[in-house]
Amino acid sequence: MERVESRKLFWLVDGHALRRASLCVFLMPWAHKRRLDLRQFADPAEAEGGEVPEICLLSTGSRSLRDEGVRRSLDGIASAAGDVPVILMPERMDEEDVRDALHLGVRGLLPTSIEPRVAIAALDLVLAGGCYFPVEVPAGQPFPAPSPGPATGLRETPLAAEGLDMPLTDRQNEVLRSLGAGASNKEIARQLSISEATVKIHVRHLMRKYGVSNRTQVALLAMRKTAEGTGLRSPRRA
């Protein structure tokens, strides 16, 4: 019997059909690039049994996390998909919403006021196993435990405003640009015609330069630089 490889899924849950359709138009190119099959639902109960997504975006509109409907949607996602990373997209939020999101283990908050490029970078970060919160986390509130894998949960860091202006070699800059685009070490090696071992060496050097502890933090810095619209320095060509 021929084995059919299952596709990785990305769920979009939004009870408003027109808003859901608009989000699909925005998210489809990203999902295609990440080789994710985008599935849209008004309610997570509509999902087919046994299908578990890699990531889920729940659009909550003007409702806060204290709304019973939002809590039911989160419970429905957990019931259908288990411990899938969930990102909330609210139209507005306050400090209490951030606190509630952290308490519930939500992986990120993407307010509708966020820049599109930042939203895409945040999706990449959460897909890699990290967390994204665009406002200062209330004191004493820990981030959710990271997803299994090499990435860790991250909070907003002042390094985004400091470290990326330091001088880099052309090769380090090329690696950094690729990290910011969400490329894996294997993809970077193929793009730059170098070995994966060499890519890992460059990544370690970048981690030391920026004073961070893992690859995902370096990638996040590069994503932020791109999201600011200033980009990263293009390498010199002979």
From TrEMBL:
Superkingdom to which the source organism belongs: Bacteria
An MF annotation (GO) of this entry: DNA binding
Cross-referenced CDD domains: LuxR_C_like (cd06170)
InterPro entries: CheY-like_superfamily, Sig_transdc_resp-reg_C-effctor, Tscrpt_reg_LuxR_C
Biological processes, Gene Ontology terms: regulation of DNA-templated transcription
Pfam families: GerE (PF00196)
Coiled coil: none
Domain named HTH luxR-type: residues: 161-226
Keywords: DNA-binding, Transcription, Transcription regulation
UniProt name for this protein: LuxR family two component transcriptional regulator
